Amino acid sequence: MLLIFQALEAILLRTVSNLSHFSVVGMNIVKKLINSYVKLIYAALYSENCKMSRGCLTLLSAMVAQGPDSARDVCSHFDFNNKYLPGLLKKGFKKGRTDVRMACIQFALSFLVAGDNALLAQGC
């Protein structure tokens, strides 16, 4: 499942950067993930495996990076009040690689980069 998350993240990051003419494809991927696979995303996010949590967070960041519309979609479907969310900030790797905490920060910052002021004022 981690490999699938990484592949989708790579596709989404490419559609937002140098393949911007495929932005509709990126938005369709985001909508499909949100509408059909949100339970799977939650299961991966809150798993005991740090790599899986990190991969899921970077995928969510790539989903938000698609633009203000996808940021609104992710914000409206993601449960920021989940009791396990603060526990992600305590997960880390011992080897100094990018850890889950850094991925959490990148996910939060991706909403700022999306540039939707109304979304930020809403408190997402």
Explain how this protein is built:
There is one protein chain. The protein has helices at 2-16, 23-36, 38-45, 50-64, 68-77, 85-88, 100-114, 117-122. The protein contains eight helices and no strands. It has 124 residues and is mostly helical. The chain starts with a helix and ends with a helix. The protein is 70% helix and 0% strand. The model has no long low-confidence stretch (mean pLDDT 87).
Could you provide a short overview of the structure?
This protein has eight helices and no strands. The protein is mainly alpha-helical and 124 residues long.
Question: Can you tag this structure with a few keywords?
Answer:
0% strand, mainly alpha, 8 helices, 124 residues, globular
Question: In percent terms, what proportion of residues is strand?
Answer: under 5%
Q: Average pLDDT across residues?
A: 87
- Span of the ends, CA to CA: 27 Å
Total beta-strand segments: 0
Radius of gyration: 14 Å
Low-confidence stretches: none
Layout of secondary structure:
Blueprint: H1 2-16, H2 23-36, H3 38-45, H4 50-64, H5 68-77, H6 85-88, H7 100-114, H8 117-122
